[in-house]
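Illustration: Signal peptidase I.
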Amino acid sequence: MATEKTTSDQLRSLFKSLVCIIALIYIIRTFIFGPYIVQGASMNPTLENGERLFVNKLSYAIHDLQRGDIIIVDGNGEAKHYVKRVVGLPGEEIEMKDDELYINDKKVKEPYLERNLQAARYLQMQLTGDFGPIKVPSDSIFVMGDNRLYSKDSRNGLGNVNINDVVGKAEFVFYPIQNVRNVY
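Result:
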């Protein structure tokens, strides 16, 4: 014989469901995917100020960091995070000469910089000042923003980024709606 649930049983069931939903959201945001807001111009035009990203926090538990990945870096005790592009991997030697990237003395193409390079050439200036060679420690990576003239990165303030300070890989822009896209 079926009995009707009392109001208190229904409330208890609803409360348990809400607790499970909140716990699930917390686990997903903390360990799997998290939203981040792009602040500043350091990644223009790839990412614009105010865009919101979803970051895959499990990505590097599955595979290694790759040159060209756009990542979120923990601000080393600061209450901020940085969005940057991986340029140099552990143990590599990085050098910039005349807006050309060299890794271990071999020229590396950076197709994501083409618009910024064209603008710099038009203005008759360098996009990335010459530096290096710099040896990346075995536990670190070298990062730069795509808008190199306006980027705090491994060259000028962040230094080499410890691999443990990488929060995750930027996967896609979800806001504003008209800009929804995968991030490369």
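Reading the tokens back as a structure: The helical segments are 7-32, 59-62, 114-122.
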